Structure formats: structure tokens, C-alpha cells
């Protein structure tokens, strides 16, 4: 029999995030995060909804764990709500034991069910008080100290029980969507049509810089005081999709492809693995991109035990002529769904930005592996919405063949990246365990392998894809 492409200890499971699933925004002492505040601003969320109830997971962790067992998951990636644990957020603010205990209990229950917890410390839901008090992510001195303090509180409470830590989910989103397009909390933009606050020619780069340093500070805290006795690993999760040139015969488009990945991923990846920002970014942004002090870069360089990879889709890239706009954040290029020949990169989904292209997953893993010297990779999110899914009757919706195909394609590409390209990928978390609050898109877009009936007491109904993933891995992994 040929060797199976994935080892028997390959860690696979499902991912979620606190604000997207928990609900219970005021229970047991939790205070607002910037997302609670943002959802109250008219026009920000497509269906005018919020995470106030969501999947009600705060009261239903036992149901979520039952789902994970039904799906045969080995691991569960979830995030912590900082404002449950330290409601006001700061290093001199009180810790909320009830909030902390909710997560300690969840970790214990997962272990009892034989499921490995993987914890994201920060999936965008900054305590609102820190934004009010000192400008949140824009304030390096305060934020770095408060984030490190929060991380230490968590490591102390459950470090002995958790082996996989993620400092941040997708700092690109916090920086660009939060401080440039204004699509995400706290909604800064310099787009004057949107009664703007903020300066998107500068703020996103400051926020990204501060997030990197705070990540470095939390990793140092973990390595100095916890790692040896607790034996876990810590890293950051970066989002990034694959790119193909709009015109493969135009060297400018080919070059723009690398530039796109540099602006999206290497902005964070290069300082962590190579100790500096990409040259293409420095060239375009000049002194609007902050400089690291020696002390800062010492904190950031080498600060990943593993690379957390969120990946969904691909685009075609066409370079733009002429100088970049001061507000440009992508590398002076266009992102397109069709190439010069009019071919589509992949089929449509419910998300305008998401067209599946599994080959791109394998290519990006190899690209990153080459650039960063073969790091250990855990895929921390991958999944899809399905066009029109929300409008289907339940019995049809549960037969989500499109999503099953997506997972077959992407997990197959991952197996090839490992077995044929030598990429050191060791885990995979599908997004998501269940339908949930899809940020600015509200509840209209579903990413779950489980249907959540928002009008029927948040009842969970597994879709076909919930079972498909176990079957796919079963076919790819070495047996005992
Ligand atoms: C993930 O981000 C998130 O981590 C997760 O919380 C979310 O539910 C999941 O995706 C599904 O969306 O409209 O042009 O501004 C994925 C990366 C980056 C994808 C920003 C959507 C918006 C592009 N996201 N992107 S645009």
C-alpha cells in the first residue's frame, strides 16, 4: 500500500471565534468589546444584527462539544473574549473570575471529550474601554502592556491545560478593515463619504506595527515564564489568499502578485521570520510605515513556534500604472475574479470575495514555506459559504455538496503540499463548526458545517459537510 500523505498524529478539527458564537454580552460581568459598540452604529451590519445572541454558545458549550464529537474532531480552535476575562481590559483593571472560569471549564470539558483545545487570545473583540481610554490599538505604549498582562492572566489560569496558543487572528483585518476601509470595528476610515474618523494613509500601518510588538511581548512572556513547565507552542494566525496574474505574459502583473502577498501576509510574516518589513512596502509607504527600534525587532523576530494559516480563496492580480494613492493598502494593484482571457478563478459563493481555487492553497503553502525556511504550519481556518444557502429549505440546505467539494479540494491540496512539496503542515481547522455571526455581513452568510436555526432556539443541525471532513481525513491519514 502506498504511504498515506498525512501522519496519524495530524491534528484536525474546527474553528470558531468568541464574538461570532457566544452571545450573552452582559452576563457574568462581561463588558462591551469594540464589536458590541460597532454593531450599534446604524448601517454597519448588513442585517442590522449583532452578536447579542449569535449561537448562544455561552450557554451551550455542551452542545458544541457534542457536535465536535459527532464530527470526530480531534481539536477545537476557539477564541477568548478579553472583556469577559478583564472587562475593562487594562493591566490595572480587575480580573473577572466568572468569565475566566467559563473558559477553564470549556477546556476541561474538551479534554474530557478527548478534544485538543487550541486557543486564540484575540479575534478582534478588543475591550471597548481600551478604545475609549487611550485609542486602543493605536496606542503602542498602553496597548502592548495591557495585552501582555491579559495574555499572562490567561496563561496562568490555563497554561497547563492548553498546548496551542494563537496570539492574534488576522492582524491584517484589525488594521485594514478596522482603520482603512472602516468595514470592521472600530470603523476608522478617511473615506469622506462615510463621516469619517481616522487617517487611513497612516493608521493601519501604526496598528499593524503595534499588534506585532504586542504579539512579540506576549510570546516572550509565554517563553520566559510558562513554556518550559507547560510545554505548549505559540504563534500568530495570518490571513492570506493566493494570487494569479491577470495577464501571465505581463511581467508587471507577475511582479504585482508577489507584491500582493507581501502587503497581505509578509507585512506580518517578514518581521516575525526575517526581522524586517518587505522592501516593496517600505518603497510604497515610506515613513508612513513605522520603523522598529532594536528592542522592538528583538521581540518580534523569531516569535513564532508555528505559522497559523487562514486561507479561503484566490484572485487574479493586475498591476496599476502610476504612483499609489496614499490610502492604498494592497500594493497598487487590482484584484479581479477573471483573468485577461475571461476565465473565472473559481465558482461563486455567497461571499463576494470568495472564489474557491484549491490549487492556490498548495501553491501558497509552498511559497510561504520557501520564504520562511520551512516553518511548522497549522492551518487555523479554511472554509466556504454557499451561494444562496440561506434561502434554501432546511432539508436541501443540509445537503451542502458544494461545501463538501470545497473541503475535498482544499484538504487534498494540503495533503499534496505535505507529501509532495515537503511543507511541514501539521494541523487543519475548518471554518466553521457552525453558522455564526459573519461580522459586517450579519447572519446572511453561513460558513458552518452545522446549520444554526436562529429563529428556532439556536438549534444545531449538522450538514452533510460535518461528516464529510472526517471521511476525507480518514482517507488521507496513516492508520494506527
Ligand atoms: C476569516 O477571515 C475570519 O477569521 C472569520 O472570523 C470569518 O468568519 C471568516 O473569515 C469568514 O469570513 O470585502 O474586500 O474587504 C477571512 C479573511 C479577510 C475575508 C477580509 C474577507 C474581506 C475582503 N477575510 N475579507 S473585502
From TrEMBL:
Uppermost EC category: hydrolase
GO molecular function, one term: cellobiose glucosidase activity
Signal peptide location: none
InterPro entries membership: GH, GH_1_N_CS, Glyco_hydro_1
Pfam family of the protein (one): Glyco_hydro_1
GO BP: any one term: cellulose catabolic process
EC number: 3.2.1.21
Alphabetic keyword roster: Glycosidase, Hydrolase
Catalyzed reaction equations: Hydrolysis of terminal, non-reducing beta-D-glucosyl residues with release of beta-D-glucose
PANTHER family: GLYCOSYL HYDROLASE, LP05116P
Homology family: Belongs to the glycosyl hydrolase 1 family.
Known function: Plays an important role in cellulose degradation. Shows hydrolytic activity against several glycosidic compounds.
Listed name of the protein: beta-glucosidase
Organism for this UniProt entry: Lophium mytilinum
Amino acid at each position: 500500500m502506498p504511504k498515506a500523505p498525512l501522519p496519524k498524529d495530524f491534528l484536525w478539527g474546527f474553528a470558531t471565534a468568541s464574538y461570532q458564537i457566544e452571545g450573552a454580552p452582559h452576563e457574568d460581568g462581561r463588558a462591551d468589546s469594540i464589536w458590541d459598540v460597532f454593531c450599534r452604529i446604524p448601517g454597519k451590519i448588513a442585517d442590522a444584527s449583532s452578536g447579542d445572541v449569535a449561537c448562544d454558545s455561552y450557554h451551550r458549550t455542551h452542545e458544541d462539544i457534542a457536535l465536535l464529537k459527532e464530527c470526530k474532531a480531534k481539536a477545537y480552535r476557539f477564541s477568548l473574549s478579553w472583556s469577559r476575562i478583564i472587562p475593562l481590559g487594562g493591566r490595572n483593571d480587575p480580573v473577572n473570575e466568572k468569565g475566566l472560569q467559563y473558559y477553564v471549564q470549556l477546556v476541561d470539558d474538551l479534554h474530557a471529550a478527548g478534544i485538543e483545545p487550541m486557543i486564540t487570545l484575540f479575534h478582534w473583540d478588543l475591550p471597548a474601554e481600551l478604545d475609549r481610554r487611550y485609542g486602543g490599538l493605536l496606542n503602542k505604549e498602553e496597548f502592548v502592556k495591557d495585552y501582555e498582562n491579559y495574555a499572562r492572566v490567561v496563561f496562568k489560569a490555563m497554561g497547563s491545560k492548553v498546548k496551542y496558543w494563537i496570539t492574534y487572528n488576522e492582524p491584517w483585518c484589525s488594521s485594514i478593515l478596522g482603520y482603512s476601509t472602516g468595514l470592521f470595528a472600530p470603523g476608522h476610515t478617511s473615506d469622506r463619504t462615510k463621516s469619517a474618523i481616522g487617517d487611513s494613509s497612516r493608521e493601519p500601518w501604526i496598528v499593524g506595527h503595534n499588534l506585532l510588538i504586542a504579539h512579540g511581548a506576549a510570546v516572550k512572556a509565554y517563553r520566559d515564564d510558562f513554556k518550559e513547565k507547560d510545554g505548549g507552542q505559540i504563534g500568530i494566525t495570518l490571513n492570506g489568499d493566493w494570487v494569479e496574474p491577470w495577464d501571465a505574459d505581463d511581467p508587471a502583473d507577475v511582479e504585482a502578485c508577489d507584491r500582493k502577498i507581501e502587503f497581505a501576509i509578509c507585512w506580518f510574516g517578514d518581521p516575525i521570520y526575517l526581522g524586517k518589513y518587505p522592501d516593496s512596502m517600505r518603497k510604497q509607504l515610506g515613513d508612513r510605515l513605522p520603523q522598529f527600534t532594536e528592542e522592538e525587532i528583538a521581540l518580534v523576530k523569531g516569535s513564532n513556534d508555528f505559522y497559523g494559516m487562514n486561507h479561503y480563496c484566490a484572485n487574479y492580480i493586475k498591476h496599476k500604472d502610476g504612483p499609489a494613492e496614499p490610502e492604498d493598502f494592497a500594493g497598487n494593484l487590482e484584484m479581479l475574479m477573471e483573468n485577461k482571457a475571461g476565465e473565472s478563478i473559481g465558482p461563486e459563493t455567497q461571499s463576494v470575495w470568495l472564489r474557491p481555487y484549491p490549487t492556490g492553497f498548495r501553491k501558497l503553502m509552498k511559497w510561504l514555506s520557501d520564504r520562511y525556511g520551512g516553518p511548522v504550519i497549522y492551518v487555523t481556518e479554511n472554509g466556504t459559504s454557499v451561494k444562496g444557502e440561506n434561502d434554501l429549505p432546511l432539508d436541501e440546505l443540509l445537503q451542502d455538496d458544494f461545501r463538501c467539494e470545497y473541503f475535498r479540494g482544499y484538504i487534498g491540496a494540503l495533503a499534496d503540499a505535505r507529501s509532495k512539496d515537503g511543507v511541514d503542515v501539521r494541523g487543519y481547522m475548518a471554518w466553521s463548526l457552525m453558522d455564526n455571526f459573519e461580522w459586517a455581513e450579519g447572519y446572511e452568510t453561513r460558513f458552518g458545517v452545522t446549520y444554526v436555526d436562529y429563529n428556532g432556539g439556536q438549534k444545531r443541525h449538522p450538514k452533510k459537510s460535518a461528516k464529510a471532513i472526517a471521511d476525507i481525513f480518514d482517507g488521507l491519514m496513516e492508520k494506527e
